[in-house]
Amino acid sequence: MKRALAVALTAALLALTGCAGGAASDRPLVVVTTNILGDVVSHLVGHDVEVLTLMRPGADPHSFEISAAEAARLRSADLLVANGIGLEEGLQQHLDAASADGVTTFVAGDAVTVLPYTSTDAGGADDPHFWTDPAQMAAVVDALTPVLSRIDGIDAAAVAERSTAYRAEIEALDAEMTAAFAAIPAERRALVTNHHVFGYLAERFGFRLVGAVIPGGTTLAAPSTSDLADLVSAIDEAGVPTIFAESSSPDRLVRALADEADRHVEVTELFTESLTDADGGAPDYLTMMRVNTERIATGLSP
After folding, report:
1. What is the pTM of this model?
2. Strands 105-107 and 79-82, sheet pairing
């Protein structure tokens, strides 16, 4: 009698567990490293696929970490989507482990025209911040769409339809950015940020990168006194009216730099390496780029 009751209870527990998790387990799993790419993937797959984005809103892509449970799920994914240009520094060991386990990986960096950092202190490294140029993100969408369509259990036609619609939105964004930046006089198109993140935007829309408070291409580096002094001189020479602080990095150093320049310099926050939560001002890629465009145009216009 007791044995029969135990079996019945076990069966009931398993049934309840299956109901609670079945919706996710029945769908293919795509794991995405950064939340910007996670947003793009979610737009392409809709509800056909479970999308697990490892990077939390507001996190730093250079240094965020994941849990053991997330690492295990990463190794069992149907597809892993990563930046792949040295961005996910704190995650590389898990990406390597997933690849060794045979997880199919889509590297966004393979789909774009990769630019090197313009700064000499980056040591010739490639710049992973391609999303600041929407044309580069459109290229990622074009390359990612057929990869997603080949996943077992996914509706390829629906993915293609969503991809076409989302690409049209990126093209509209690109046109808006082109018009907004064209209105800024050429002599005022100069960018100073926490660290080097706008190389692709600068290349596409004709901006000069005056410098960055943090040297190199990673937020894990720290500026020296001579770095700050050199940057102050560059700012004074360029006559930059506004410098930009990233939302994923503290702006204390940027404000100290503004003070050290011995004249009034506005400090404006941009969303560059991470999306926010729903209430944070940049909940998705398209919104993030539109907010940044408006703030850059406002900050640098006469």
Report:
1. 0.83
2. parallel
